[in-house]
Each structure stands twice: as C-alpha cells, then as structure tokens.
Design a protein that fits this description.
Layout: E1 19-23, H1 30-53, E2 57-60, H2 76-83, E3 92-96, H3 103-110, E4 116-121, H4 128-142, E5 147-151, H5 157-169, E6 179-181, H6 189-204, E7 206-211, H7 225-228, E8 233-238, H8 240-247, H9 252-264, E9 268-269, H10 281-301, E10 305-308, H11 322-328, H12 359-374, E11 381-392, E12 395-401, H13 408-411, E13 418-419, E14 441-451, E15 454-464, H14 469-477, E16 485-490, H15 495-501, E17 506-512, H16 515-531, E18 535-539
Parallel strand pairs: 1-2, 1-3, 3-4, 4-5, 7-8, 7-10, 9-13, 15-18
Antiparallel strand pairs: 6-18, 11-12, 11-17, 12-16, 14-15, 14-17, 15-16
Helix pairs in contact: 2-3, 3-4, 6-16, 8-10, 9-10, 10-11, 12-16
Length: 544
C-alpha cells in the first residue's frame, strides 16, 4: 500500500460584501522601508477615509511588523504567504507611497480573480508614483488586468469619482486620446535614414552587455532574447563579480587621473570625511575604477552598450555605479586606455548605458544613439524616473529624476554639473552622482515596453525648461536633492494621460537643437522602430 504524503489543501478565504482588501509592496532594503513607512501610513489613512466615506471598509491583508519597524511586504516569499490569506475574488488595492519591488506581489496578483486597483500618492517625497508605474508596467507585461488612480490625499473629486467607479464596475478608464498608432510615414530623407539604420542593425547586429539581469523586482524590464534577437540585438550576459574583479586591477593613479580630468572641466564635488553620510575621495576613486573597468570589459566583448544592475549585490560591495553611468553616456568624457596603454577605448563616442539593466531603456538608448549619431546630433541620452510634477506659470511641469547619473551635456557641461553623496538609505556605501539641472531645450522622449507579448514604443516631444532657482530648489527638496533633475513640459500630453498610459517607471530623453530638428529626429526614429517591427505609437503633439 502506498504511503504518499498528500498535501493538505485549504479552502480559499471568502470575500465579504462591502470590504476592500489592501496590500503594500515595499523595498528589499530595510533602511528604505523604515524611512518611508510614515509616509505610507498617511496614504493608507487617507485612502481608508475616502473608502469609508463611500460606504466601504478596508481590510489590510498584513499587519505592520514592530520588530522590522514598517508594514511593507518586503520579499517575494512574504508576498506569496500574504496572498494566501486574501479572498481570490475580493476587490484588492495595492497602495504605494514608495518605491517598491514589483515581484514581491506579482505572484499573488497573477492569480487574483477580483478587480485590482493600484493607487499612489501625488507627492514627491518618496518615489510612490515611480513604484506604481513599475508595478503597472509589470502587470501589463504579465497580461494581468488592473486599474490605477493617484491623488495627493484622495479628497479631490477626480480621485473620489475614480474610486466610486472602480467599486461599482471593477475598472477605471482614463483618457488616452493623446495616443495614436504610427500613420504611414512620408517618403522623405528621415524615413529613408530610419529604414537604412534598421537594416544596418539587423544585418550587422549589436551586442548589449548586461551585468546581472533583473534589478529591483522590475519584471517589466527583462526582455527575452526572442523579442530582441529579431531586431539584430543580442545579449552578452556578464557577472557583476567580474566587474569588481576588473576594478581591482585598476590602479589608484589611473583613477586619480579621471578625477583630475573632471576637475579640470569644472565639475564640483561636495566632499566630506564621514563615509556613512558624506561623499569622500575614497568613494570617488572606487567609482572611477568602475568606470575604467566597465569600458575595458565592454572592449573585451565588443559591446555596443551595457547595463549595470548595482542596486542588489554591488550596493553591499562598492560605492554607486551612477557616476560611471553618466560618464559613459556622454561623448566628451575622461579618456580610458586599453590595459596595454596602446588604444583609447571608444574614443569620441558615448557608450550607451542603461541604468538598472532596464532593457526597455537599453534597446531605446541603442536606437537613439544610432539615429542621433547618423543625423550629426549629440547622442547623449539617459533615462529618468517619472517622479512627480506640479503646475507652474500656466504649465504642468514634470519633475524627472534618476539616481543613475545623467550625461554632463544634458546639464550644459561639466562646469554646470556636480556630485553629491547618494542617500544612505538606498546606497549604504555611498558614491557620488553626476548631477545638475537639465538645460532648457527641445527633447524627444520615448519608451519601449512589452504589451500583449510584443514590443511597443511610445514616442513624444517635450521641452526642458528653466525655472527660477528657488523653484528648482523647492522641487529638489520635495524629492531627492542629490539626484539630477529635469523640468519637463510635455507637448499635448496631460498629467493623467501620461500616468494612465506610460508602461514603465522610466522615460528615455534625448536633446535636439531645435523643434524642427526634434521633429525630424523623432520621424527618423519612428521609421527605424517601424522597420524593425516594433509597434509605434505617437503621443501628443507630434509633427510627422
């Protein structure tokens, strides 16, 4: 007779009428979860008050942990266990006032049958909006239906009406009239160039190196080979441990030479002596060694671009990779020689780097680099988090920020750039940024993402604007003052339209010297994307 140990299966929890369940996904870093917890508590209290006013009760699926000092789901395993207690057909709200790791709750959300709503607070203090956008993009890739809402405190009529609609129907629809599919392109020089660049990429191929794929739970940021190989793009899978090993081969004199080059160009460094809270020379020297090591490894493998994960693994080993990332994305940067001193590596070129190994940004950066270079434009590009925004002087002005540094040309040069220590709660070993205020000018913004199992691209136009110094400082103080900031006005795309549509927390941006040139560059890029088989969507006021 068989003595199999059959598992004990429990019946699912039954949903109760008039009760909404909530969960809160958090960071993997204890320091971040503790620092952000009071802001999360305020958002949950505001949401509960709104739900009570609408006649509904809120049931939080997991209690705060006094020992941990916060109430976030802080691991994938914890998320799986929490979702065991949630009725699979109950209305469920994921409440986010912070940056969160989407994979903490993705397993549970994949199997949830009830309506799902993502909410975030319209506050810049912590990246709650960024976290919500990443979870939305991850659910989009996974094919899980969801709705989303955002509000400062859920007392405004727009948010209350959205909650009411979701409670009654299970969905909230937003205005997406700013999005249209790419129409037939004119037969002009720009379209011809874009198609030629697509054929060149497919036939000549490109290699993007990735130092440990998958960062901070960003499921949406992982592109399978089957999606990018048909474009002519292939992966070189690298280990961050190899990057550290190569850093150890770079001597102090070479690292100091990078620093002196930056100082000679006028870059400012906010230095101190406390390793725990201030930027120090030892941190900078480590970052310079990472910069040199990354270029040498890129040369070893013939890479056309690379991404460094950093946030997990390296964060406990070396100072931040961000300063190196900003340097790599700039054409004018400290020279790095081959190990034998015979060759300058990638001389006169930007080596596209995609922060946080986000493949949507990596593919996008490579294509932008090809288009902008072919058109004789500065190919420096970067990604930003869509952090927050407010009205100013009759315009809605977005705050774009990124912990990963921007290329100096976006700030107007090294003499308009500075470096500050990264926040300890995210970066325990410190390291500096390549920071500044993005210069005013015309930009093309873009995002490549996965939806319905295929690659899509949203393209739009905007203007980086200059704000008074006191307003810039107010916005920095309201967000993360150490990080580079762009004041962005989008053309023909409203606040709620962007939030409802954007399938990522990141937005890629590249400058153009004039509005006409930006239109031509966007047209060329659209033609390249279309020829590669990526489904292109134009957002807002785009002139083809």
């Amino acid at each position: 007779m068989n003595t199999y140990q059959l598992p004990t299966l429990s019946d699912p929890v039954t949903a109760q009428p008039g009760v909404v369940w909530t969960v809160a996904s958090g960071d993997l870093r204890l320091s971040a979860n503790r620092a952000c917890w009071p802001t999360q508590q305020q958002l949950e209290a505001d949401l509960a008050a709104a739900m009570n006013d609408l006649g509904w009760q809120v049931h939080r699926a997991h209690d705060p942990d006094p020992g941990a000092g916060h109430g976030f789901i802080s691991s994938q395993r914890m998320g799986i266990e929490v979702f065991r207690t949630i009725p699979p057909d109950a209305p469920l709200i994921v409440v986010e006032a912070v940056w969160q790791y989407s994979h903490h709750v993705l397993a549970g959300l994949r199997d949830h049958h009830g309506p799902i709503l993502l909410v975030a607070n319209w506050v810049g203090q912590f990246p709650g909006l960024v976290g919500m956008l990443n979870l939305a993009a991850s659910l989009t890739k996974a094919g899980v239906p969801y709705s989303a809402l955002w509000s400062k405190d859920f007392t405004d009529e727009w948010a209350r009406n959205g909650l009411r609609t979701w409670l009654e129907t299970g969905t909230v629809a937003h205005d997406l009239s700013h999005v249209r599919d790419l129409p037939p392109l004119p037969q002009d020089d720009e379209a011809a160039l874009g198609r030629a660049l697509a054929h060149q990429l497919r036939s000549g191929k490109a290699i993007l190196g990735v130092f440990d794929e998958g960062c901070m739970g960003m499921y949406n940021a992982i592109f399978d080979d089957e999606l990018i190989n048909p474009l002519g793009i292939y992966k070189e899978r690298l280990s961050q441990s190899a990057l550290v090993a190569e850093m150890n081969r770079v001597d102090d004199a070479e690292a100091e030479g990078v620093h002196q080059w930056l100082v000679s160009r006028g870059m400012t460094f906010h230095l101190g002596t406390d390793e725990g809270t201030e930027l120090t020379m030892s941190q900078l020297l480590s970052q310079y060694k990472l910069y040199v090591a990354a270029l040498r490894i890129a040369d070893d493998f013939g890479l056309d671009g690379l991404g460094i994960q950093y946030q997990q693994g390296l964060k406990d080993t070396v100072p931040a990779s961000d300063l190196a990332e900003g340097l790599l994305n700039n054409v004018d940067r400290p020279p790095v020689m081959s190990r034998d001193g015979a060759r300058e590596l990638y001389a006169g070129q930007a080596l596209p780097h995609f922060n946080e190994v986000d493949w949507g940004s990596g593919v996008d950066s490579l294509l932008t680099n090809r288009v902008w270079t072919a058109m004789g434009l500065d190919p420096a590009t970067t990604l930003h988090d869509i952090r927050w925004g407010e009205q100013y002087d009759g315009h809605f002005v977005w705050v774009l920020e990124i912990s990963g540094s921007v290329p100096a040309s976006h700030n107007g040069g090294y003499d308009k750039s500075y470096s500050m220590r990264q926040p300890p709660m995210y970066f325990p070993l410190g390291g500096g940024t390549l920071s500044g205020v993005s210069r005013p000018g015309e930009i093309v913004w873009s995002r490549i993402f996965i939806m319905d199992g295929v690659l899509h691209a949203d393209l739009g136009r905007g203007s980086a604007i200059e704000l008074p110094a006191e307003e810039t400082q107010r916005r920095l103080d309201a967000t993360t003052p150490q990080w580079p900031i762009m004041h962005l006005v989008l053309h023909g795309v409203g606040r709620d339209q962007l939030m409802a549509r954007h399938r990522a927390n990141h937005m890629n941006v590249a400058y153009a010297p004039s509005a006409d040139t930006a239109d031509r560059a966007l047209r060329t890029k659209a033609a390249m994307l279309d020829e590669l088989g990526i489904r292109v969507h134009l957002c807002g006021d785009v002139h083809l």
